[in-house]
Amino acid sequence: MLKIFVLFSLLIGFSFTQDNKPLNLPKGFKWVVEPTISDGVNQYREGYGTASFKNERMSFYDVNGKKVYTLEGGETSEGFYDGIALIEVGHNYKYILNKNFVKTPIPNDYKISNYSEGFAIVSTEKGKFYVDKNFKKLSDQVYASAELFSEGLAYVRFNDKLDGFINTKGKVVIADIQNGGIFTQFKNGLCAVQKRGKNREYKFGYIDKKGELVIPILYLSASDFYGPYACVSKKNDNDDYFSCFIDVKGNILANREFNGTMDWSGDMGHFFNYFPVAGTNNSISLHGYMDKTGKDIIKPNYYNLGNFNSSDAIGFKKRDGDKSGIMNKSGIEIIPPLFKSVGDFYDNISVVEHNGGSGYLKRVK
Predict the structure, then answer these.
(1) Could you tell me the CA-to-CA distances from 278 to 272, 273, 307 in Å, in that order?
(2) From the CA atom positions of the chain, what is the Rg in Å?
């Protein structure tokens, strides 16, 4: 039996220690930082990951695993958003860091959000306003609520009755849309809005950048558009709930209905359906991926699947297993279930938990 195991290990490109730790990864993967004891490991954003390994201070790592900047003791950061990383000290953001690794104090004890399209939101007792990367105010206007900019527009609420979208000059370009208060952003030129119907039930539709309703108020839930498609849910003719993907005209993609849809990831849609558990009254949600023709590329046989982002690889966990592996867009399992967890690949790098530690695993061509 041992000879067979060793031969199998060689065939798939691994050598193993007794605790099943992979020392040699198959072609197409390499450790940027091998799994080790950590106090916090964050996913890569905009070319850098932030992590604290072996009880050291948190540092920024480039895509080759080189430590390029180390924070002071007690400082943490989730990484870069729009070229700016917020540095937290004692549960409050105290500094911003740019990609030249120049650290600047945040003035006036601002409670600041991450940046998007050049602006962050500052929250005060009187309301919210926008500042640029030099902390200059976008305008003197203070809003009751505000969201980050996306595609040049940001949703704001002036008071309980008046809301709309402003541009990056602070000018109102879509006024009084009477959104139900759900977080909204423009993606692919469209934005989900929530309105109350005749039966006082809130439902969703989509507006364009002119503020015109281009997809009717029909849906019980609605996501941003992920490229050409969005995830929505509604009731069918039998009054049963279902979820589906729609295009920018509101057409249901491939006329397929699911128990749930996650997102449109690259050129495939992530969905799940419920399946009965034998011998019980329970059910389990199993995940898969379909293409735009409605064909299952990855059949719904998985307890958990990641999302395809900048990579052609995702983590997976099988229905009857407690370990995670990695597969490609064809559903081929490239690395068998060996890891405690596999995060989504950002900048082609995933946070992987293994043997009591965490590390960075890179997808290489």
Answers:
(1) 18, 16, 29
(2) 23
Rounded-to-5 percentages of helix, strand, coil across the chain: 5, 50, 45
What residue spans define the domains of the chain? 187-305
For the beta carbon of residue 291, count every other beta carbon within 10 angstroms. Answer: 15
- Is 35 within 8 Å of 359 (Cβ atoms)? yes
For residues 295-307, one letter each, b for 16 or more C-beta atoms within 10 angstroms of the residue's C-beta and e for the rest, the string is eeebebebbbbbb
Q: What DSSP string describes 71-106?
A: PPTTEE---EETTEEEEEETTEEEEEEETT--EEEP
pLDDT in tens, 188-213: 999 999 988 777 788 999 999 999 99
Q: Which long-range contacts (CB under 8 A, 24 or more apart) does 254-263 make?
A: 254/290, 254/292, 254/293, 254/294, 255/294, 256/290, 256/294, 259/285, 260/233, 260/285, 261/231, 261/232, 261/233, 262/231, 262/287, 262/307, 263/223, 263/226, 263/231, 263/307
CB 184 within 8 A of CB 191: yes
Q: Which residues contact 182 (CB under 8 A, 6 or more apart)?
A: 192, 194, 204
Q: What phi and psi, each to the nearest 5 degrees, are found at residue 9?
A: -60, -40
Which two three-digit tokens encode residue 249?
């005209």
Give the integer Cα–Cα distance in Å for 353 and 360: 9
Model-level pTM greater than 0.90? Answer: no
The residue written with tokens 């699947």 in the block is 305
Which of 144-173 are b and which e, b meaning 16 or more Cβ less than 10 Å from the residue's Cβ?
ebbbbbbeebbbbbbeeeebbbbeeebeee
Whether the pLDDT of residue 283 is over 60: the answer is yes
Read off the pLDDT of residues 301-318 as tens digits, 9 standing for 90 and up: 999 999 997 789 999 999
